[in-house]
Amino acid sequence: MKLLEIQDLSIHFGGVKAVDGVSFEVNEGEIFAIIGPNGAGKSTIFNLISRVYTPTKGNIRFEGQDITGLKAHQIAGLGIARTFQNIELFDHSTVLDNLLMGRHTHRTTNFVEDILFLPKVRREEREHRRRVEQVIEFLELEAYRKKMIAGLPYGVRKVVEIGRALAIGPKLILLDEPASGLSVEETRDVAFWIEDMRRDMGLTVLMVEHDMSLVNQVSDRVLAVANGRPLALGEPAEVQAHPDVQAAYLGTGAAA
Amino acid sequence: MRVVFKTSYDPDIDLHEHGHSRAKIAILLAVMVALPFLVNDYYLAEAANTLIWSLAGMGLMVAVGHTGQVSLGHAAFLAIGAYADSALMSAGAPFWVSFPLAGLITGIFGALIAIPAVRMSGIYLAIATLAVFVIVEELVIILEPITGGVGGIMAPSITFFGLSFDRYGALENFYWLCLAVVALVTWGYANLLRSPTGRSFLAVRDSEVSARALGINVTRTRALAFGLSSGVTGLAGALMGHYIGFFNYELFSIFVSINLLLVVTIGGLGFIQGAFLGAFLITAVPQIIAIMRDNLVSVGIDLSGVPGLDTMIFSLILVGFIIYEPTGLYGRWLKIRTWFEIFPLARRDMFRRQKSYLKTERMR
Predict the structure, then answer these.
(1) Chain A residue with minimum CA distance to B206
(2) Burial of B158 (0-12, 13-18, 19+ CB in 10 A)
(3) Which residue ranges form the domains of chain A, and what is each CATH number?
């Protein structure tokens, strides 16, 4: 079943065609990677899906519903979570609070109930905490639970950001370069987690990644883009062998 | 260092992790309740003033400390609260109706202002709130039937079920009234911070783009925070009106806005305790300067002719804090406490990473 369908997606900033006629579909339970050289428009595709940008043309459907007209803050409620290439955590809060913020779409109390801290609020807090603890256990963040983000090393922050996205309890998770800046060991952990997300949580993963070993290891299908245009779509080995992809990366005249 | 053995999530949800800190608050509250029997009227009046400033400080803290919205217009909300309360009481409403209503009116006004204003941030928001302040000041002068115009009005005397809460007639009662209001608001504020609403405020302050990605409606959250902020400030304004007794627009000058900003900055941005420490500093320093000035006269130095001495000392304190202690008085206290708690393991650079700044110019 198709979870996410992207049709003829384009966005132009003035004369720059950052994304130009990209179409692809992500099936439920699939791990789908987008690769491409710097400035190819990979992150822009993410920003279009999470509605940070509004496309010039084309549309995005999630579970059959057109989400192209929704606001950015309405996306998480549908079950689409994302991480950012340059970590966007809440620096002056603890790891636990950051993860709890990920539970925002599940709150049913309003601010008056919160100020009075009615028993209902406490019940919900317990439930949020229980769900967050599952994420903490999954990502092995126990040691950092009460630590401020501002004092954590880069690799841990990267994992906390994945955790915050998981706390939403999404159906689809968008990972923007989950392995960038990580060591070999940390990258291997990320690969295991991505596979476990699918196996244990039933998640569909869409990721942008430069690390080809990670892409080869986990992804079912790969889309290569360059200059905002799709180059090739298929299995990892197949896409990497494609002459247009090699030309885009290496700049040889192979495609000409 | 105290370690709590937790067997459920509740200690983390509770306001106090262990009985010790709960007891400390209870003792503090007991001392505050007993204060009228411990000090004379002069100090009691000052204590009431400090409580009112703490209330206003908590109001501004919601906006500046917890949602990162700098406001230079909070004196306007003090004014709206004071005049709304007085007008309602003059119209015959009892205090227990007029007082919450004054807060509500101010809060709604603040939220309405916020809907267009919160799209701005940092220095631009500060200027917009300054403009709101100027408009409200003019309105106060124009709306003479309600506000008494330039001449000012007398705040009606508060009576509850035949009991007087007049600031001059029954100072103890007025003090207890302020204390009750402050205690209630503090409790509500602390609840807010441990709830999803409070977390959404922090999320909006620290990263708007990821707040949106988590499903937080940034505009609505900021408007709510600003509304709550102005509502609490309105309550403080109402009490301030009763405290001063006879007031006109000059009570709510731009300097009050700036002093409020000092309260939250010096006290410690992002901490409820900061509002109290800052308020204490702001209300106590002028008294200390006055006492010192008098003492200097006795040794032959007469500073009574020096204009702007208080302002200069205030500014020096603010500049000093921003340079040397951006986390404010409460931040300093936390460091001292930690030093003792983990003695002798404290290191010089332990707090280096925990500097916090007003996030005003953040790229979005």
Answers:
(1) A90
(2) buried
(3) 2-79+170-255 (3.40.50.300), 86-149 (no CATH)
Taking the Cβ of residue A54 and every Cβ of chain B, the question of whether any pair is shorter than 8 Å is answered with no
The yes or no reply on domain B16-354 and CATH 1.10.3470 is: yes
Subunit contact A122:B207, Cβ cutoff 8 A: no
Closest by Cβ to B197, choosing from A111, A126, A130: A111
**Which residues in chain A are contacts of B205 at CB distance < 8 A?**
90, 92
Q: What is the pLDDT along chain B (364 residues), one digit of tens a residue?
A: 567 788 888 888 888 877 788 999 999 999 999 999 999 999 999 999 999 999 999 999 999 999 989 899 999 999 999 999 999 999 989 999 999 999 999 999 999 998 888 788 778 899 999 999 999 999 999 998 888 888 889 988 888 878 888 888 899 999 999 999 999 999 999 999 999 999 999 999 999 899 999 999 999 999 999 999 999 999 999 999 999 999 998 999 998 998 899 899 889 888 999 999 999 988 887 788 778 777 888 887 777 777 777 778 877 877 888 788 878 888 888 888 888 888 877 776 666 544 444 444 443 3
B280: which residues sit within 8 A by CB, 6+ positions away?
Answer: B50, B54
Question: What are the residue ranges of helices labelled H in chain B?
Answer: 10-13, 19-38, 41-67, 74-90, 95-117, 122-142, 144-147, 171-193, 196-206, 208-213, 218-244, 254-267, 272-298, 309-324, 328-341
Tokens of B168: 């001059």
B99: tokens are 């007082």
Residues of A in contact with B17 (CB under 8 A): none
A116 touches chain B (CB under 8 A): yes
- Is the Cβ pair B188, A50 closer than 8 Å? no
Are A150 and B354 in contact (CB < 8 Å)?
yes
Query: Using the beta-carbon criterion (under 8 Å), do B270 and A92 form an inter-chain contact?
Result: yes
Is the Cβ–Cβ distance between B152 and B246 less than 8 Å? yes
Is B228–A82 a contact, with Cβ atoms under 8 angstroms apart? no
State whether residue A222 sits within 8 Å of chain B by CB: no
B14, closest residue in chain A (CA to CA) = A122
Q: In this complex, do B199 and A100 lie within 8 Å of one another by their Cβ atoms?
A: yes
Cα separation of A88 and B211, whole Å?
A: 9
- The beta-carbon neighbor of A122 closest among B13, B205, B210 is B13
